[in-house]
Amino acid sequence: MKIIVTGGAGFIGSAVVRHIIRNTADTVVNVDKLTYAGNLESLAGIADDPRYVFERADICDAAEMSRLFREHRPDAVMHLAAESHVDRSIDGPADFIQTNIVGTYTLLEAAREYWRGLPEEARQGFRFHHISTDEVYGDLEGPEELFTETTPYAPSSPYSASKASSDHLVRAWRRTYGLPALITNCSNNYGPYHFPEKLIPLMILNALEGKPLPVYGEGNQVRDWLYVEDHARALYRVLTEGAVGETYNIGGHNEKRNIEVVHAICELLETLHPEKPAGVEHYADLITFVADRPGHDLRYAIDAAKIGRELGWSPRETFETGLRKTVQWYLDNREWCRHVQDGSYQRERLGAGG
Predict the structure, then answer these.
(1) pLDDT at 310 exceeding the cut of 80
(2) Which helix (DSSP H) or strand (DSSP E) does residue 186 occupy?
(3) If you ran DSSP here, which 8-state letter would residue 278 be given?
(4) How far is 352 from 53, CA to CA, in rounded Å?
(5) Strand pairing of 127-133 and 76-79?
(6) I need a labelling partner for 291 at 20 to 30 A (CA). Which of 120, 170, 193, 351 fits?
(7) What is the pTM of this model?
(8) Is residue 217 helix, strand or coil?
(9) What is the 3-state secondary structure of 103-166?
(10) Helix, strand, coil percent values for the chain (each to nearest 5)
(11) What is the side-by-side order of every strand in the sheet holding 52-56?
(12) What is the CATH number of the domain that holds 249?
C-alpha cells in the first residue's frame, strides 16, 4: 500500500511511520506542518528509505491537500495531525479549533474528492483512519468503570472538545458520503521520542537536571498508559484488518495514578542513573505539588476488549517493561533531548521541503 500519514513527525505519528517502514512493504507519505511538536530527528533512522517520502504541508490548506492526493495516489490515510497538549489548549484554544476541526474537515474533503474519482476496486479498498483520544469521553466516576466504544462523549478541555468534534466529522462523512472511515480512541501514550512537555519525559529530564518534578494537585489523576510502539502496531492492525465504520478503543491495561508514575520514574533513575545532580540525595525529593489545572479529569480507563476480540491485538509491554525502556531511551539519547530543549531541532524546518 501507499499510506498518507498526517502528523508523521509527531510523537505517535513518527512511531507509526517507523513501524510501517521497518515492518511492512508499504510506502509512507509523511505530511507534517512541522509545528513545535514536529521533529524530523525522530525519523532519522528511516529518512533515507526509498519507501519514505516527506511533504511539509498544513492539513488546513485545501489546495495542498488536493495536490497531495492527486500526486501520490494513496491507498489509505492515517490521520494523526493534531494539536494535543491540554495545557496549551487552555491557554490558547484557537490553534486547536483550527487544526483539529478545520484541518480534519479539509482533509476529509480532499480525501472524499480523491476517493470519488477512483476506479471501483480502488474505491472499495480505500481507507481513512482517524486517530483520536480517550479524552473525548470525559472522565469516569467509579473505580470499576471503563470507556467503551459506545461511551457518550463528554469532553472537558478545549483539546478534547476539538478532538470530539473531529470524530463527529469523520462519522458524518462516513454516513453521509460513504467515505470508508475508521476511528480509534487511545489512552495516554508514552515511550521514545516523546516531546518533553509531557508528563513522563518532563519528569525524567527534570530529574536528571535536578529540577523540581511538578505534579498537579496531589497526583491522584488516573491514566491508562499505552507504550507508543504497541499503539503503532494496533493502528496498523486497524487500518489493514478493521471493519469500515467501526470504532476501536486502544488501551494499555495499565492504570496508574500520576504520583505512582512519578515515583516509578524516580526509582528507575536510582538504578539506571545513580549519579545525581549536586545537592540531590534522592530523585523523589524533587517531587513538588502544584495547583491543579482547570477542568482536570480525574480518571481515564480504556476497555480494549473489542480490538483484542475482533482483531487479535494486545499490548506487548507492561507498564514496568515499557517505562524501563522509556527511561533508558532518554538516558541513551540525551542529544535528541538537548536539541528539543534548546530548540535546535526546529532548524531542520528550514531545509524541509515538500
Answers:
(1) yes
(2) strand 181-186
(3) T
(4) 11
(5) parallel
(6) 193
(7) 0.93
(8) coil
(9) HHHHHHHHHHHHHHCCCHHHHHHCEEEEEEEHHHHCCCCCCCCCECCCCCCCCCCHHHHHHHHH
(10) 45, 15, 35
(11) 52-56, 27-32, 2-6, 76-79, 127-133, 181-186, 247-250
(12) 3.40.50.720
Does the pLDDT value for residue 352 go beyond 50? Answer: no
Structural domains in the chain (count) = 1
Q: CA dist 322 to 199, 264, 305, Å?
A: 15, 12, 21
As a whole number, mean pLDDT of residues 304-323 equals 97
Whose CA is closest to 225, among 258, 273, 176?
Answer: 258
In the block, residue with C-alpha cell 517493561: 321
Nearest one of 38, 64, 41, 68 to 53, comparing CA atoms? 68
Q: Cell 514536529 appears where? A: 38
DSSP assignment string, 244-267: TT-EEEE--S-EEEHHHHHHHHHH
One-letter amino acid at 274 equals P
Active site residues: 134-135, 159
- pLDDT (mean) for 30-35: 96
pLDDT in tens, 4-20: 999 999 999 999 999 99
Owner of C-alpha cell 538516558? 331
pLDDT of 141 reads 80
CB 3 within 8 A of CB 28: yes
Q: Is 2 helix (H, G, I), strand (E, B) or coil?
A: strand
Domain that holds residue 275: 2-351
- Please say if the pLDDT value at position 350 is more than 70: no
pLDDT of residue 348: 53
